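Treating backbone geometry as a discrete language has practical consequences that deserve illustration. Part of our work consisted of pairing the sequence of a single chain with a tokenised description of its backbone. We regard such an encoding as a compact summary of how the chain folds. The amino acid sequence and the backbone structure tokens for this protein are reproduced below.
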Amino acid sequence: MYRKYFKRLFDIVCSLLALIVLSPVLLITALLVRIKLGSPVVFKQKRPGLNEKIFTLYKFRTMTDKKDEQGKLLPDEIRLTKFGKMLRSTSLDELPELWNILKGDMSVVGPRPQLIKDMVFMTDEQRKRHTVRPGLTGLAQVNGRNAITWEAKLQYDLDYLKRITFLRDIALIFRTLHKTVKRDGISQEGMDTGMDLGEYLLQNKQLSIEEYLKKIEIEKSFLLRSGW
């Protein structure tokens, strides 16, 4: 009953209150991003949401736009600044997602919205995670976040689907606050940014380069079909 009738109401109330209470933090963070990283202040990216419908995710910018001599963006680890790392470690970069929750793109608790590129590398079973709205936090986030394997992360997402209750969501929110204060699992060991699912599978020899390239083409086709 909670999942069908009250979870969305819970999301609206929580996101609206959070936007009001945290408005000074949002404004100060936005100002610091503008001063230290320039414009745009908010980073936008397409992500698969409920029933794999594509939506625009909002975050505070954490990287520069530095490019090489050919005009291509430099690797993430080079563009990610010390200030950007601080935003990520404190999860302040995630605050604009409160607007995504209020709009109905996301939920407070649910599987984290991954990249479209990641989605095409998931199995049919793993893609069942998209039968609910993606969350600001979720079961995987309180059990290792980016420090755990992709297999574990996606299994936690599926485990969450088996039991969605008000009390469990409340417990996950409080556990998230505790993890955020401790700054646990921000990134994989030895890496500033997480590895894409496709790259992970390729590196661990779970698929060939031919299969990898084929999935990339599927991603492009998915975007075209979705009108992006």
Q: What stands out?
A: The radius of gyration is 18 Å. Strands lie at 42-48, 54-60, 107-109, 135-137. The chain has one domain: 2-225.
